[in-house]
Amino acid sequence: MAIIGYRAELDAGRRFLESIEPDDITVLLFHGDADGLCAGAIMYRTLEYMGAQLTFPAFMEKGETVYSESLAKRVLARDPTHLIVMDTGSRPVPIVPGVTTMVIDHHRPEGVPPVDVFVTSYGVEPESPASLLTYEICREMGHINGRNWLAAIGVAGDLGADADIEVLKDARDLYGVSVIKDATALVNAARRAPAHDVVTAFEALSAAASPLDIVEGGVPQAALLRQYREQVNAEFNRVLRTAPKISGQWAVLQFSSPALVHAMAAAAWIKRLSGNIVIAANYGYTEGNVHFSVRSALDVNLIDELRKVCPIRPDVEFGHGHPKATGGILPLNEFQEFLRALGFSENIVTGVPT
């Protein structure tokens, strides 16, 4: 086991890659946002150059997490010897038992994962998202010269296109900030759209020679990404008209959408509800569940605030992620109990938007 801060040597991550033999089967698994997708594209290109035997990455389906049993079964069906997991959080439970595994992550750890190598930048300043960590591991391992823009898009996705990170500053100087912002938005739109088509976003990143290919249509996937962005924008503008309900410091937005727009809605409303903790609750993303995002302009640790109200269960997605950006997925009846615990009235608790 190796726990490695971003400023420390990343040799254990490189040794993990060097240990992969030509006959070994390596599976990549990563989050479907810009940071995770860019980390995956960097790692995939590196292992290809090294001559590793790769299967196409394993992608989480709509509503799944990296700890979903259904995902583990799909990974094991490929009979992998090695698994590389990026940007998915870390818990003290196995991801895919019995497979040699490296985790690269920057979220708040919930314990040390039982893996062979754990690369984490949590608590190190400046913050280093998973795409940047992956780039630092891979840039001496394979042919990724000229591909630092992938790390830049990933960093922009998590920290914003104006973040003071060297690889992002280089990309802004070369391509312009508007190109970086547009490419990031297009890549993120694939996961947020109702189709949850992260495969197309990954293929676009893998095929593109620069972010201009994604923004200006230089790869065949670009047109579909633009359609996804239009769908997401339309849904976001619709749900943004949802009126909030207030209980003490808590505010809840209740809506139903097939698109992953709850994080965007929560982030937008904290500007208007600066004294509240905002919960954007999406009752229509997957059947029978409520997917919700929690954001606030207050100087509070949102994960800790949630855990004051409800205990964390390892079998439920609740209160993971970042101290300033968290949320969860609960069955409808459990989400209703959560609202009761926050002090909302019964008509709000039982109200199910359509």
Structure description:
The protein has 354 residues and is of the alpha/beta class. The protein is built from 14 helices and 12 strands. Helix 11 links the parallel strand 8 and strand 9. The N terminus is likely disordered.
Structural class: alpha/beta
Give the strand tally.
12
Give the low-pLDDT segments: 1-5
Largest sheet: number of strands, sense, barrel closure? 6 strands, parallel
Q: Gap between N and C termini, in Å?
A: 48 Å
In short:
This protein has helices spanning 11-18, 34-50, 69-76, 130-138, 148-159, 166-175, 177-192, 198-207, 211-216, 222-239, 262-269, 302-309, 332-341, 346-350, and strands spanning 3-4, 25-30, 53-54, 82-86, 100-105, 117-120, 245-247, 250-255, 277-282, 289-296, 317-318, 326-331. By secondary structure, the chain is of the alpha/beta class. Strand 7 and strand 8 (250-255) form a beta hairpin.
Overview features:
6-stranded mixed beta sheet, 14 helices, 41% helix
Topology, please?
Layout: E1 3-4, H1 11-18, E2 25-30, H2 34-50, E3 53-54, H3 69-76, E4 82-86, E5 100-105, E6 117-120, H4 130-138, H5 148-159, H6 166-175, H7 177-192, H8 198-207, H9 211-216, H10 222-239, E7 245-247, E8 250-255, H11 262-269, E9 277-282, E10 289-296, H12 302-309, E11 317-318, E12 326-331, H13 332-341, H14 346-350
Helix pairs in contact: 2-4, 2-5, 2-8, 4-5, 5-6, 5-7, 6-7, 7-8, 7-10
